[in-house]
Design goal:
mainly alpha
C-alpha cells in the first residue's frame, strides 16, 4: 500500500544520499517499483 511505498522510497533515498553501491540502489529501486505496481494493480 501507500505506507509501504513511502518506506521503500525512504530506503532508496537513504542509499542515494549515502552513495551506496549500485547494486544496492538497483535493488531498492526494484523493490519500490514492485510495491507501486502491487498497490496500483
Amino acid at each position: 500500500g501507500f505506507a509501504e511505498i513511502s518506506v521503500r522510497a525512504s530506503e532508496l533515498e537513504t542509499l542515494l544520499i549515502e552513495q551506496a553501491e549500485g547494486g544496492d540502489v538497483r535493488a531498492a529501486l526494484d523493490a519500490l517499483i514492485g510495491e507501486i505496481e502491487r498497490t496500483l494493480a
